[in-house]
Amino acid sequence: MLSYCAYNSSVLPAWTQNGFSICFLDTVTSSILLAGMVLGGGAQLLVYWMWAIRLEQQFQPQPKGFRIQIILSSLIIIQYIMRIGFATHYAGHLHGYNELSTIFYILSWMISLALLWTERSKTLMSYSGRGHGIVLLIFWTCALVNETLAFVSWHSPQWWWKLSNKDQKTAFGLWVCRYVLIFLLFVIGFRAPALPRRNYNLMVNEDRNEELTPHPKDNVQRSAWAGFWHKTKLIWPYIWPKGHSILQVKVIICLLILITGRVANVYVPVLYKNIVDKLTEDSEEGATINPWKLIVTYVAIKFLQGGGFGGLGLLNNLRSFLWINVQQYTAKSIMVRLFAHLHGLSLHWHLNRKTGEVLRIMDRGTTSINSILSYIIFNIAPTIADILIAIVFFVTSFNAWFGLIVFVAMTAYVAATIVITEWRTKFRREMNLKDNQTKQKAVDSLLNFETVKYYGNEDFEVDRYNTAITEYQSSEWKSLSSLCVLNMSQNIIIIIGLLVGSLLCAYLVSKHELKVGDYVLFSTYIMQLYAPLNFFGTYYRMIQQAFIDMENMIDLMEAKQDVCDDPNAKTLILTKGKVEFRDVSFHYNSKRKILKNISFTVNAGETVALVGPSGAGKSTIIRLLFRFYDLNGGDILIDGQDIKKITQSSLRKVIGVVPQDTVLFNNDIHYNIRYGSVKSSDQDVEDAAVAADIHHKIQHFPEGYATVVGERGLKLSGGEKQRVAIARTVLKSPEIVLLDEATSALDTKTERNIQASLNNVCNNRTTIVVAHRLSTIINADTILVLQDGMIVERGRHDELLEMGGIYESMWQSQLSADDEMGDQLNPDVNGSNKKDK
Q1: For 481-509, b where at least 16 C-beta lie within 10 A, e where not — what string?
Q2: How many C-beta neighbours within 10 Å does residue 370 have?
Q3: Cis-peptide, bond into residue 13, ω within 30° of zero
Q4: How many CB atoms lie within 10 A of CB 628?
Q5: What is the SS3 assignment for 655?
Q6: Domains of the chain (ranges plus CATH)?
Q7: d(CA 366, CA 556)
Q8: Cα angle at 34 between 32 and 37, to 5 degrees?
């Protein structure tokens, strides 16, 4: 007759012979797993069957990770079948619980396979999360906990830890195999390699021919821990202060202090227990012995430890004091590198970025790195170490039940923290995005306050800002409310663990198996352990948030430089200043070419003017020569040297630029002129101002050269800003001068005054002028007329007029416009002005 349990015993009691009853444990756990999968998995399959849509093949990730999950799940099912076969072979018969639990386990794992396949092949349009559903995650977690419970029965003869015969050795081997397979599946499950990283609604709007791979810039769906090792590798050079021996010694001392604190955390409750036991024993025997040595030792260690988890102790404060310089080194290093990296990026990148958003990213990213270091090294790592020490201590000093209580409580706490925090990650990331948008709108509006005033759109800007804040607060509410859910879950787990442990300890004290001091030891130690554990969720959230905050900064640091020096680049050797363009082609977008095989030469000391309609490519030529962009074809040479094969710093050192839209630093005039050559003396600055015909104007300002020009130089007029820019270029004293429509935004009188200053700058220098008003370039050695990215005419002013082509038409148009303006301003003046012109 087939018995259900071995030796015809009953399913109960659950605990017998110093361990769990295998019959009881297999029956209960297999039933729970199957019930959970039938109810939870069945409900999820039903939902997917009714409302999900099938993912197209191109939207499914590469199947490698999915295949691994399928193989692992299949191997687990196979090993359960093997377990039945080996049990029959060695024992000669089966017990009822063997058959029942095996069937239940196999069924539950088969449902998990069905769920795994369904989640990969179908998706819910309304679901925006990333990763496996909660049913699979809980199933894998419970399966792993089920196998881990075998450790509790380490001393039980029912189990196979002693490996005394082939039956036990086989059972142990299968358990090891099963444990490894489930553990791998559990770890891979959180990564969810079989599932898309983005929402289906986003993917269907993309090019169907684009290969679907995990999107690295997806700030909504991916886990904050994604790319953990990559992020760690990126910030590691800033963590260990290489080359700073004093800082390295401080880091080592901080780690030693950390270890000392772990030892102190063990001794404080133990000494407390000994004091209570001593006082209790003395009181019962009527003795008057005072355990003053224990009390002094206890107080001394408590002084080192400080509060419940070292918050006010000597060790913690000493460590914090020593860590200040290390933290400052890290912050300074990464801020300087990021700032230098931003200056090394191309003009194209900066034109497409929003200043307020970049500054916000820099600020949050730098703070996040310091937070990660502090929380991981001094909070998370010590807390985990304290948990492990506590489990070992309770198992050895009390019994396995206390170790199990601590282990289960801590495992449940950590699991709940991770699952809920991962769930609420998207709310935090969304809040960051809305915060960036809010700050960007504020900065953009304030920087353009003149435009706002011109059109009377103050209310419109306030409404935009109000809408941005409302959207931010909506995301903030989701983040904070989900935080309350997390805190409540953690609190429930902590209280249940404390209650169960305290009741068990009190019961053993009442049975005289433990002393009163043991209860004091348990309650003191567990509360001391729960204090940092209570903050474990906070630390985990802060680390996760720091990783989220760091993502955008890492994106900045990994932004590629479009224009880089050649590895063998040499310093430009300038002999004459001759500039050559040879068949130069360029485009910002491959669908629209800006320059088409442009060729011309500017000999040393000559002036070449570029004219033509807007969009013809005039300013692009200036930017290419300054190497803001690299060519798509052709070569640019200076004294026979290809600018792609010389360093950018040496190239830009010999070129001076006076742009159309001069932007000044929010500093004094002296600083803005000296910026052309930062090591110049005050006299050099004034001489440059004289050459730019602005020295006398500055002297009439109340504060002279100390006058602050305001944001972007808005306190100065257009002509004054241009003269400051010219003085800055004069001070730089470049061999090659580029004028990019430097006077087009000025009135005629101011233009004529500044033109004299520009002539001083360009005298005996190789000059390229982009001109809007043709009257400013009539003395140029060569005038190039551009249209549709090509040079259609070239020659001197008189020669081009005689051609009767595009240049002559432009000249006549400007003459007519000037005559009309003159007639409007001076209606009594006769037409002799035309002849004068």
Answers
A1: ebbeebeebbeebbeebbebbeebbeebb
A2: 18
A3: yes
A4: 18
A5: strand
A6: 6-203 (no CATH), 228-555 (1.20.1560.10), 579-654+734-836 (3.40.50.300)
A7: 12
A8: 105
Six-digit token string for 585? 């082609």
Q: For 611, which DSSP code?
A: E
pLDDT tens by residue, 282-312 = 554 555 567 778 888 888 888 887 754 445 6
Cα 187 to Cα 659: distance, rounded to the nearest angstrom:
58
- Buried b / exposed e over 676-707, threshold 16 CB at 10 Å, is bbeebeeebbbbbbebbbbbebbeeeeeebee
Q: 31: which residues sit within 8 A by CB, 6+ positions away?
A: 104
Q: Could you tell me the end-to-end alpha-carbon distance of the chain, in angstroms, rounded to an integer?
A: 123
Give the whole-angstrom CA distance, residue 746 versus residue 754: 9
Is the distance from CB of 301 to CB of 264 less than 8 angstroms? yes
Tokens read off for 627: 């190497």
Tens-digit pLDDT profile for residues 788-832: 888 898 899 888 888 888 888 888 887 776 665 555 545 554 444
Which residue is associated with the tokens 């009163």? Answer: 516
Cβ contacts of 213 within 8 Å, gap of 6 or more: 61, 62
Q: Which residue has the tokens 């953009």?
A: 444
DSSP label of 130: -
Q: What is the mean pLDDT of the chain?
A: 79
Position 109 pLDDT exceeds 90: yes
Q: What is the dihedral of CA 96, 97, 101, 103, to 10 degrees?
A: 0
Are 423 and 543 in contact by the 8 Å Cβ rule? The answer is no
Cα separation of 822 and 833, whole Å? 9
Pairing of strands 53-54, 790-795: unpaired
Identity of the amino acid at 125: M
With tokens 């002013």, the residue in question is 797
DSSP string, 22-37: HHHHHHHHHHHHHHHI
Residue 144: both structure tokens together: 């792993």
Q: Give the Cα separation of 655 and 727 in Å (integer).
A: 14
Residue found under tokens 């058959």: 99
Residue 739 in tokens: 């004028």
Q: Which helix (H) or strand (E) holds 141?
A: helix 134-148
> Within 13 Å and on the Cβ side, how many CA atoms surround 466?
6
Per-residue pLDDT of 299-352, as tens digits, reads: 888 888 775 444 567 888 888 888 888 888 877 887 788 888 787 776 667 666
User: Burial of 603 by CB count in 10 Å (0-12 exposed, 13-18 middle, 19+ buried)?
Assistant: middle
pLDDT in tens, 134-149: 888 889 988 988 888 8
In the block, residue with structure tokens 């082509």: 805
